[in-house]
Amino acid sequence: MRVGYLQFNPRFGEVEENVRRALALLSGEEADLWVLPELFSTGYHFTSPQEARALAEPVPSGPTTQALLAWAGERGCHIAAGLAELAPEGVYNSAVLVGPQGLLLLYRKAHLFWREKENFLPGDTGFQVAEVGGVKVGLMVCFDHLFPEAARTLALKGAQIIAHPANLVLPGVAQLTTRVRALENRLYLVTANRTGEERRGGEVLRFTGQSQIVSPQGEVLASSTPQAEEAVVCEIDPELARQKRINPYNDLLSDRRLDLYFR
Ligand code: ACM
Hints:
- It is built from six helices and 14 strands.
- By secondary structure, it is α/β, with parallel strands linked by helices.
- It has a single domain, classed as Carbon-nitrogen hydrolase (Nitrilase/N-carbamoyl-D-aminoacid amidohydrolase, 4-Layer Sandwich).
- The strands form three sheets. It has a six-stranded mixed beta sheet. A six-stranded mixed beta sheet has the order 6-7-8-9-12-13, covered by helices on one side. A two-stranded antiparallel ribbon has the order 10-11.
- Helix 5 packs parallel to helix 6 (173-185).
- The longest helix is centred in the N-terminal third of the chain and has 13 residues, at 63-75.
- 50% of the residues are buried.
């Protein structure tokens, strides 16, 4: 199976241009599953809930999800991507998984980071998996990486690959935690981060790039520099992520001591 990520620098508020440019960057490569960054079509740093609402789109009827669906349908591939979702009750920092069959997953970010708490509703979907060509794929978004429960929940639901759209600002942190999340759950983890900076509302946010694909052994199989805009693809064997037994005595999931946790 070929999995890939897109690392790129969207321009804040330029939804049409960002979607067009993201898909153009993917066009030179082929993958079965692509992962795009968090909020890839709008940019990240909203300065008010009103601004988030103005740029958010319903899923799946909004233009961003429709463009992803059309592209996935033409290419026969799947795409996981982060976007601002407009729902009747407000705006979520969401991620979708789409394929030729349509919308497979909608995930609303559970752990909102910093000012996201002012502009988005906390996610209510929980952590779900869906099948892509017989392989189970789960979604988490950016800051979720610092909460081991997110990846563990997806592993318990059978995820062999976690697609992780991100807009990371803390240098080097997720590059470490995602290796640990992959290792402790024996699954592949694909982090698609963005690059560049956003100067908005008197603040500057610098995004750290260094997107990566990590193996169930915690090895970095592919990675990018902090600045490059690029689509990177890697061949993986998802069967390796089914094996949770690490020696004849130990199994990462069934050795858990549920009788001792949270006591
Ligand atoms: C983040 O969750 N975008 C840091």
